[in-house]
Specification:
The protein is α/β, with parallel strands linked by helices and about 775 residues long. Helices cover about 45% and strands about 15% of the residues. It contains 32 helices and 21 strands. Strand 13, helix 28 and strand 14 form a beta-alpha-beta unit. The longest helix has 24 residues. The chain is globular, with a radius of gyration of 31 Å. It binds a DNA duplex (15 and 10 nucleotides) through helix 6, helix 10, helix 27 and helix 28.
Length: about 775
DNA sequence: CGGCATTTATTTTTT
DNA sequence: ATAAATGCCG
């Protein structure tokens, strides 16, 4: 596992081996050792609703796992009576591992520890018939969903240019997040050209006939079942004596309802979260859920975890200062008993490339040991950006300087084109009537079965109420397609017949069968013949896919799990700097963190502000808080005055969040580029001057930004340099006699922003930053 | 039906 | 700038 994950909590949980070996220690509970009073209370308050408000780095996962162990060790609950919900598989896995570790070797499985979705699948498979599905329903991925919606939009006669399927998918998703079935969508909701509701209903009907559910359905169906079948709900209510929820601030309405329904009997629900880290409002998360907890669950105990074990006081102070700007929050005050540590560093750059260059150098400095720090591994460093397109400049730069990096949160393995194609083959081979999968691969690789042929197949299938594969078989036997299509389709059908037979026969291993399918279908060959640069990688991924099969009993089992699991872990040994989005960084921590791109419009994102106004700014601010609190030792915030955006140059003002950083926790740096290529003399003077002038807080930057944008910055290379002290510019005019500490007297022959071209009396000519020279008259002799 | 040209969008992302 | 996604023509 990666070294950066909550390593402190592990350290603290360390229990002497002797005690571990003794199993349950007399009088003691090792899982309680080292817990602070608040954590202890959170672990021991087992009865009734509990809200654990856990700030960043306060050891919440530790408290949560200790709570589970406490429930088990005290005999309060058996493992299968505990419902523990997380958002990601990763979090679920980690919790399972930790509970197992704390319990010692008797790792009794926790059958109901998982993500909302995986738990819902489990429940839904048992009661599928109550919502018109069979228990072997398939789970659609986004691609399937879009393809289906496209058909429905076309059937409805809507122009899919103006009303794209993606948009409808988003809309339906949002409705499902709110637990709205088609009937519950408010009448008069004229979304999607007024057809939203109709299309939603049609989509749901179609899913039913396909015996399929999308991700939103998993929750929605279970909530529906709970609401309409009290007997079923009752069964689960009684079953789950204790409920635990992680990241409660990220729950949406459907998840909230699901929890409320289940918790109503025993009322032993413990929700853990941090309202200040709610950053998923845009995909349906309701901060309101956590803000309302005490009202929703009467008699709730609220426990605040405020002691931070992760970051230095300065980092904590900076984060607290920023988040204090939010109005809608429950309010926590993080503190630490640490006293050491550097201030958060702030630096402005001319443009995005310079920012990347500077950060690259800083990373190398850290690696070699700088400013009295020990050398730091690249693994311990991360660059957290607001939007993924910001990653590019860093990748470019790191490639040229040969700095190893890893990008976290790219396209996930199982979402890749070739993997989905391959899995579609497996799906059809496993169940011949999987129409969506068949559609996906019927002409991949190209078989000359185009739109027209596919339409014919569809029609025949629908008219006769048979699967697409059967319809194809029919067409091949009876004719009705072009000769070429018939021939190719026939080959494909023969293939599926063989593969399906092989699966049923159970003689060959599923791995062999998978290889045969990929080979005989021509899919491997298809990529071998492809000469795009991605092709080799795709073949590599296919090999990896086959390898992943080893962990499963059979193809069915594999397909079953894969739709819910999005693995991404291909760790290799090289030490690498991590580049990821702020969203992707939630829950992680790094000794050294860089936060680039703090410019208004980029961060906070213009779009967020336009769409959600003040609430949008607040969510962005929480994002800033999440970013800063990822840092353990070193945190560097930066911004660029100019940035390439969609091809053209754009200048921007420093982020409003920068002005919200408490100055006492910040050290303002001056980029080396400022010295105009001249000598390093005076650098420290300069720095001091800037710090004292509180430059980032002064209007200097604003003026600079205003001036440069007024001038229309189209050729930034023309005048590289940054105005820190705007006063300096107006001080000089052409011809002025000036004095420079190191270079002596000279005359100003040119002015470019804050940089002066000076011909010195000692013969040299140089460009110098204005603040390095003084008017000659002022020089005392 | 497939390949090349033109068009268009472009925050954040899990399940 | 750039990539992905359509549209048109052979």
């Amino acid at each position: 596992m990666s070294s950066w994950e909550e390593s402190d909590a592990f350290k603290e949980a360390a229990v002497p081996l002797s005690q571990q070996a003794m199993g349950a220690p007399r009088g003691g509970s090792p899982y309680m050792d080292g817990l602070n009073p608040a954590q202890r209370e959170a672990v021991e308050t087992l009865q009734g609703p509990v809200l654990m408000l856990a700030g960043a780095g306060t050891g919440k996962t530790r408290a949560l796992t200790a709570r589970i162990v406490h429930l088990l060790r005290t005999g309060t609950a058996r493992p299968n009576e505990i419902l523990a919900v997380t958002f990601t598989n990763k979090a679920a896995r980690e919790m399972k591992m930790r509970v197992g570790g704390m319990l010692g070797e008797m790792v009794e499985g926790m059958p109901w520890l998982g993500t909302f979705h995986s738990l819902c699948v489990k429940i839904l498979r048992r009661h599928a018939e109550l919502v018109g599905l069979k228990s072997n329903f398939t789970i659609l991925d986004t691609d399937d969903q879009i393809r289906l919606l496209k058909q429905l939009i076309a059937a409805e006669g809507i122009d899919d240019k103006r009303w794209p399927a993606r948009m409808l998918a988003g809309l339906i998703d949002a409705w499902k997040n709110r637990a709205w079935t088609p009937e519950r969508v408010p009448a008069g909701d004229d979304a999607f050209n007024g057809k939203g509701q109709i299309l939603y209903a049609a989509y749901q009907a179609r899913l039913k006939t396909l015996n399929a559910a999308d991700f939103g359905d998993l929750l929605l169906h279970v909530v529906t079942i709970f609401q309409e079948h009290p007997d079923v709900l009752d069964q689960y209510r009684r079953w789950f004596k204790y409920i635990l929820v992680d990241e409660y601030q990220d729950t949406n309405v459907a998840q909230y309802l699901w929890l409320r329904l289940l918790a109503a009997e025993h009322k032993n629900i413990c929700c853990v979260g941090d309202d200040d880290q709610s950053i998923y409002g845009w995909r349906g998360a309701e901060v309101g859920n956590i803000l309302r907890f005490e009202k929703d669950f009467e008699g709730a105990t609220v426990i605040k975890l405020e002691q931070n074990y992760r970051s230095t006081p300065h980092i904590l102070g900076a984060a607290s200062g920023v988040i204090a700007g939010n109005k809608t929050r429950l309010g926590k005050t993080l503190w630490t008993d640490r006293t050491d540590g550097d201030k958060v560093r702030l630096i402005g750059h001319w443009d995005g490339e310079e920012e990347a260059r500077w950060i690259g150098e800083e990373i190398e400095n850290y690696q070699h040991g700088t400013r009295g720090l020990d050398p730091i591994s690249a693994d311990s460093m991360a660059i957290l950006v607001r939007a993924s397109h910001q990653m590019r400049s860093f990748e470019d730069r790191f490639l040229t300087i040969g700095l190893p990096y890893r990008v976290i949160g790219g396209p996930r393995f199982y979402e890749r084109l070739e993997i989905r194609d391959a899995m579609a083959y497996f799906r059809v081979a496993v169940s011949n009537d999987d129409g969506l999968a068949f559609e996906r691969i019927v002409n991949t690789p190209k078989r000359g079965i185009g739109d027209k042929a596919q339409q014919t197949i569809n029609t025949v299938a629908r008219e006769n109420g048979i699967s697409l594969l059967e319809a194809s078989r029919h067409l091949v036997e009876q004719g009705g397609l072009s000769a070429k299509a018939r021939k190719e389709l026939g080959i494909l059908i023969d293939g599926f017949d063989r593969w399906s037979a092989a699966i049923r026969a159970g003689v060959d291993s599923h791995i062999e069968i998978a290889e045969v399918i990929l080979e005989e279908s021509g899919y491997v060959e298809y990529w071998q013949n492809d000469k795009t640069p991605e092709a080799p990688g795709r073949l590599e991924n296919l090999k990896e896919l086959v390898k992943a099969l080893e962990q499963f009993e059979n193809l069915q089992g594999f397909l079953e799990h894969v739709s819910l699991i999005m693995e991404n872990e291909t760790e290799d040994a090289t030490e690498k700097v991590s580049i990821m989005t702020l969203h992707g960084a939630k829950g992680l921590e790094f000794p050294v963190v860089f936060l680039p791109g703090w410019e208004d419009g980029l961060f906070p994102s213009q779009r967020s502000m336009d769409e959600s106004g003040q609430a949008g700014v607040e969510e962005e601010r929480r994002l800033a808080y999440v970013g800063i609190t990822r840092a353990e030792e070193q945190c560097t915030i930066s911004f660029a005055a100019n940035r390439r955006v969609y091809g053209s140059w754009q200048s921007s003002m420093p982020s409003r969040f920068i002005d919200e950083l408490p100055p006492e926790h910040v050290e303002v740096l001056t980029p080396p580029g400022l010295y105009g290529g001249g000598s390093g003399y005076g650098a420290s003077d300069m720095e001091e001057k800037v710090v004292n002038a509180d430059a980032y807080n002064s209007p200097g930057w604003r003026r600079m930004a205003a001036r440069t944008s007024a001038r229309g910055l189209s050729q930034p290379s023309e005048a590289k340099g940054i105005v820190i002290d705007a006063q300096a510019v107006s001080t000089f005019t052409l011809g002025d006699r000036v004095h420079h500490k190191a270079l002596g007297f000279g005359a100003v022959v040119g002015i470019e922003g804050d940089k002066l071209s000076i011909v010195f009396e000692n013969g040299g000519a140089k460009k110098v930053v204005a603040s390095f020279v003084t008017p000659a008259d002022d020089v005392p002799f």
